[in-house]
Amino acid sequence: MNESLIREFIQFLRLERSLSENTLAAYGHDVRLLADFLFRDSGKDSLLKTTPADLKKFVANLHSIGLSAYSQARILSGLKAFFKYLIYEDLITSNPTRQVDSPKLGRKLPSVLSYNEIHNMLSSIDLSAPNGQRNKTIIELLYGCGLRVSELTSVTMSNIYKNDGFIRIIGKGNKERLVPVGDETLRQLYLFIDGYRVHIKPHKSAVDHVFINERGKVLSRQMIFLMIKKTAEAAGIRKQISPHTFRHSFATHLLEGGADLRAVQQMLGHASITTTEIYTHIDREYLRETILNYHPINRP
Questions:
Q1: Which of 75, 151, 156, 179 could be stapled to 208 by a disulfide with Cβ–Cβ 3.0 to 4.6 Å?
Q2: Is 172 assigned a catalytic role?
Q3: Domain 2-99 CATH (choose: 3.40.1710.10, 1.10.150.130, 1.10.1740.10, 3.40.50.300)
């Protein structure tokens, strides 16, 4: 019964909210976590029997196994959407999540790379290796355009407007935006497309996709994560980084250079400017480090 409820919930979200498949999978995962916990904790075999007390114990369990407050809040957000759906469908009469508070979240500053660190990563790539040109292009596009990794894997040839210097991106919630591409990034992109991509026979499901593997299928996010980890190690970078680190670096470096906050918001595809404002906090940290390191009054 639970699995049937979850499938119907996911289908509802797919039709009513046009969410991406990655987001839908995350919602399904969150609800299944609760279903498993209910069965283990109290033998309940139906999510329809969930009480506020069950949810409070579930959240406490998430904390006890070491999940961060951000992860706990994300899971609880998914459960709130699920129980709202059950109310909407008249499957329950009261929403058990109303009595459960989300974990308090501080504003966490994301990790960023310096331009020199990114340059070192790009320089460490062996362009004579089979995937060298591809890997360099991926990093240049992540950093040069501030793309999410899911957006990068979805880039298609037909969505690149070379003469205009823009790429049409399908972002979160299937929202479209035009992202400008700098001349150097565009040059690198076409070095890859014309010199490497053209020699790989694409699978029928990936004919228009830019980034494909040796078998012609769309490159997975996991492969990009692994590639970036190996490239960072080769460049001597010890920070914990991911594809998203380049997006953070893109925004931070633009704002440090004097870019308009709303322009950066539009390029990142943020629905709210408050999300983009976190990068102004990073900028202030940079300014504080500058005065501490270079002002003579702070020198020993």
A1: 156
A2: yes
A3: 1.10.150.130
